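Memo to structure team: turn this sequence into structure tokens by end of day. - J.P.
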Amino acid sequence: MNKFISNKQVFWDLETSGAGKKEHPKAFATTPKWEQIMQIAAVVVDENLQPTNQNMNEFCRPRTSIIAQPGALLTTQQGIRESLHAKHSSYELISMINNQFDEWKKENDELIFIGHNIISFDSTVLEYNLFNNLYFPYIDRKNRGDTLNLARALYAINSSSIKTPLTAKGNPSFRLEKLAELNNLPVEFAHDAYSDVKTSIALTKFIHDSDPESWEQLTMTMNKDKAIEFINNNKGFCYLTTFAGRIKLEALSMVCESSYSGWFNAFNLAYDPKPLLEANIEEFKTLIKKKNRYVITNQHPILLSGKLATNFEPYNDLGSEILNERAKMVFKNKSLAEKFKHMEIDRQLEKEDESSQDNIFPESRANKFTEFGQQDVIQKFHEQKTWEEKYKISLSLRDPRAQFIAKRLIFDESPSTLSDEDFKMVHKELHDRLIINQERPFTTIPEAMNQIDDELEKIETSEDEEKEKKIKILNDYNTYLMFLDNYFKDKNAKPLKIGKDLVKQIFG
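Reply from structure team:
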């Protein structure tokens, strides 16, 4: 058998407390960064995509301070009672992930982390779960791939090579379980992390076999450095884009690297660049709209030969001569680069002026981890065997954000360890976050209760075969939320019990 890949890969997947929310009303899309990891599965494969004996499949208990979306419980069919009986706490699970991924990376520094839709979802959840447990968040950033990108690329190159379901708007859908079903790939249990990992491996083999000629190019950009090299060495290239469900290849030329490391400003060669070259900065900001793209090199961008462009609209009407001419004008053009620089400065200032609610929460910015400093103290925190010892170490953290993250973590893991003062501080903070019915970037208790009512209404009028099971899951979760609601409203509350003892306290 020919080798599929040049080195080992880790296929992984998460099940989480929810699908995320918009961080503020003006946000373009939702973010899952506030969700908790509930299950992780990971399998190391060899160069032939065959599973090795290196793997993990673990669950954990929910954190008291994070409210799951009821829809997540229905998706995984995992009720709150089952979750509270899990062997590991959240911190234990995150520590296992951090240590295991780090160990696998040490064995092979070119190891690639890959899964389905991990770039926009799972990786973000992982980063913030690491950060909110005082671990360095960017454990998978250098080498990572996404089977969602591979599937979209195969469709863009030759739509007949892969069967896809259609959305209500008639666009192709790339949900893993549906792709597997239509293309006769194995699915054991939908929305189980370990099953999804095995399906992702099968999908990867399928894509390779469907287009072996494009395989090397499709997978080359799983490595950030190789993606950067390709962009720098090709005046024109094809780039896979997705917007509103539409999949297409665009012919681009790189102008300059962005102020964000590993991000590149590129121009769409479907447009004539001459007006941009002649425009002043204010004119440029108007003219550039919809004509530029950010190519982010650590997000497994699909980058293909520019020669393919004339196979697709609108580039087939333009022809290779015009495309080459435009690429020469744009590629690393210093005048355009300066205009992009000014535009980015203005955009950054606009973002800073926008009041975003998430900024008031210490755990909202994973990129601030290195600002905490005292990495030796944080390491000592993790090395301690007991929560009493961890708590003592945490008190020496000078950054108030790091201190709060540590105290909130201890509140969830071993609340009786905190001093009365710190316990009351975290308890009040969580009351203000989770009880007060106002817009938050994360799910609140009133919000989750309303979602339960909506789900129950839909299920009770349906003919779902699993109707009774789903109703029980929702009713149990409602009981759990009512308990937490009363608990966080109680100004004289005492530390909660953990795991099985908490189940007894709530359900008897």
